[in-house]
Design goal:
Elements lengths: L3 H6 L17 E7 L33 H13 L5 H13 L7 H18 L10 H22 L10 H29 L7 E5 L5 H10 L6 E5 L3 H11 L28 E4 L10 E7 L8 H14 E10 L2 H20 L7 E5 L18 E6 L7 E13 L11 E2 L4 E3 L2 E7 L5 E7 L5 H9 L8 E10 L3 H4 L6
Parallel strand pairs: 2-3, 2-5, 3-4, 5-6
Antiparallel strand pairs: 1-14, 6-9, 7-9, 8-9, 10-12, 11-12, 12-13
Helix pairs in contact: 3-6, 4-5, 6-7, 9-10
The structure holds S-adenosylmethionine.
């Protein structure tokens, strides 16, 4: 409650913070390209979709669902009758894309303060010397009501999605293809940069309809995983995941949620090696090569629970831990929160099992340079629409992959391309996040770089690693005002 007198004294006008984003300074680093011939034999090799030397480039193909999954989806959709399915899927998609984490207490306090300031700044304060106690009380009440209304309108109202059967189906229609695509892109980089890594088991928290298991199996081989452990609090999500694995056949042929008991069951022989549970296993003793938490962090009701869950998942991992969320600023901030939290535990060194480093997208463990500006660090995956076959769509996502143990000394730590590459006549501009944790841009020109370097730069896409070593010696002053305009992409 705010008293009328306090409000009168705290009257002030809000000043809006204006943030801007720019890449490095006008002093651009010199980029020396790493060519296959110069490469240390231990240097990680990236997937080579092209037959030339563009070895920093990943596949930019449109990600398609595996045939088996598509057939199962068709079967499920064919037997599911709900006139609202498309509408439900569109509104669920909209909700998820704009979803934010629940406000913390301090954020809520900040909102209260700014609403108080705003309301009091616009309120006409009559001369108090002629006011009775009752009038003053009335005024205070009316002001407090205005403030309360303003807080209610301003504060984000987080609420969990209840994934019943109809929401699970809406999720399948809206999110299966884009979620599969972003995960496939992330997994593909692990596979290509770490070819010796062949995960035997997978742990998926908030597994939903099982998108991560399909994506991981498509990437490393359908029969390569001995165990897939899925945890999802929704029985209907688990049942739909099981139905997809069973080729579109509902567990009891009637589409009812029966396979799952309170603690889940292993199911039929076609589900051998799959475990579906509603709750996290109590013991962290069993570890997994690949641990995934996709599009679930924003579903957790508090920052404390997010961090607790992240720690449990990090403890469960003995290889890679993947967090992926939609590419919004809010989701990106949650990814940064988890990344920084787990890296800080790694730095503390209290528990050997918590040591790790960032595998992707960052080539560093420093604070994310994007955090200070207003845009998220996000990437794009192309995918085929589930409902309109042959329609190609793009999914934006933010992610972090942590790997257990220290970073290998032979890791080339090439910079990551964090915005679309700008190709111009005679030069190419790449906006990069470097191994020093800085945003830099380099200009690859015909006069200063070889033909091969120019080709690599042109073929490189947003999200790739650029095979260059950067140095600031004899840095060139290079102004391209036209191109600067384009740096504010989000
Ligand atoms: C947005 S869906 C993501 C599904 C899947 N990971 C994907 O990427 O397609 C979030 C899932 O998290 C599940 N979930 C939410 N809170 C949970 C919790 N506390 N424990 C386990 N699962 C949870 C929901 O039931 C839902 O299936």
């Amino acid at each position: 409650m705010f008293s009328y007198r306090n409000l009168l004294h705290s009257r002030c006008y809000l000043s809006k913070n204006i943030t801007s984003c720019s890449f490095g300074s006008s002093l651009r680093p010199i980029a020396k390209f790493d060519h296959p011939v110069n490469r240390d034999s231990n240097c990680p090799t990236l997937e080579l979709p092209q037959k030339d030397s563009s070895f920093g480039i990943k596949s930019h193909n449109i990600v398609k669902l595996p045939e088996r999954l598509k057939e199962a989806v068709d079967k499920i959709l064919g037997s599911y009758q709900d006139r609202n399915l498309i509408n439900n899927s569109e509104s669920l998609n909209h909700h998820l894309i704009f979803k934010k984490p629940p406000l913390t207490e301090s954020q809520l306090k900040q909102i209260e303060v700014s609403c108080t300031e705003r309301v009091s700044a616009t309120h006409l304060f009559p001369d108090m010397s002629f006011m009775s106690v009752d009038d003053e009380k009335r005024l205070s009440n009316s002001l407090n009501n205005k403030i309360r209304r303003s807080v209610k309108q301003t504060a984000y109202k987080w609420k969990p999605v209840v994934y019943n059967q109809s929401m699970a189906m809406a999720y399948l229609v809206a999110r299966l293809a884009p979620d599969f695509a972003s995960l496939y892109k992330i997994f593909s980089e692990i596979r290509s940069r770490d070819p010796g890594f062949q995960p035997q088991n997978l742990f998926d928290f908030g597994s939903g309809i099982g998108t991560a298991l399909w994506s991981a199996k498509s990437c490393w081989g359908m029969d390569k995983f001995k165990e897939v452990f899925c945890v999802d609090s929704s029985v209907d999500m688990n049942n739909l995941a099981i139905t997809l694995i069973q080729g579109g056949v509902w567990p009891n042929q009637q589409g009812e949620s029966r396979v799952m008991g309170e603690d889940g069951t292993e199911g039929s022989s076609t589900l051998k090696g799959f475990y579906f549970r509603q709750f996290m296993p109590a013991s962290p003793a069993v570890k997994y090569d690949l641990v995934v938490c996709a599009h679930t962090l924003l579903e957790l009701p508090s920052a404390e629970l997010r961090l607790q869950m992240a720690l449990s998942l990090w403890r469960k991992s003995q290889g890679y831990l993947v967090f992926v969320e939609h590419g919004s600023r809010a989701a990106y901030e949650v990814i940064v929160e988890i990344r920084d939290f787990l890296l800080s535990l790694s730095d503390e060194g209290k528990e050997a099992n918590l040591e790790g480093h960032v595998f992707s997208p960052c080539p560093h463990e420093a604070r994310c340079p994007r955090f200070a500006d207003s845009t998220p660090c996000n990437f794009e995956a192309k995918y085929e629409s589930l409902m309109k076959k042959q329609q190609v769509l793009k999914e934006r996502f933010s992610y972090v992959v942590l790997k257990k143990g220290p970073r290998s000394e032979t890791d080339s730590r090439w910079p990551r391309v964090v915005r679309p590459v700008l190709t111009r006549s005679g030069h190419t501009i790449c906006r990069l996040c470097t191994n020093e944790g800085k945003l830099e841009e380099i200009v690859v020109t015909r006069s200063k770089h070889s033909k091969e370097d120019n080709t690599i730069a042109r073929k490189t896409k947003w999200g790739d690693l650029l095979p260059v070593q950067l140095s600031h010696h004899e840095a060139q002053r290079d102004h391209s005002p036209d191109d600067k305009e384009n740096f504010k992409l989000s």
